[in-house]
Design brief:
The chain has 137 residues and is of the alpha+beta class. The protein is 39% helix and 22% strand. The protein has a four-stranded antiparallel sheet with strand order 2-3-1-4. The chain starts with a helix and ends with a strand.
Length: 137
Amino acid sequence: MDALDRKILTELQLDGLTITELAARVKLSVSPCHRRLRDLEREGAIRGYRAVVDPAAVGLNFEALVFATLRWENPDTVTVFEEAVAAVPHVLQAQRLFGEPDYLLRVATTDLAAFQELYDQQLARLPGVQRLTPALR
């Protein structure tokens, strides 16, 4: 991987670009830029592409941060918790904090009532959870 490959990766992380826009930003013609991009994908430097969705644009107008403290029952606690969190579609982001609390969850719902239902029915029942502390925005 050379400096040009790193520049391509940097630009892709900043914006979702067409190949033409990417080539212009890294000062390459489209064909060589496309070849490098395919090589980066094949080598595993690029693992995938994602759309960044505006929660409000899809009706999720209420956001909350939820701090989660886990009960460390066994070595699989983190794995089981993270898999369960990944299955909750309203959790937009989960960050492990390496301290107390153990995780910060960013959650979006339609309104406060929907958040309360999500909290009671799904978040409070996540495996390994000792305590949840919501911080409403």
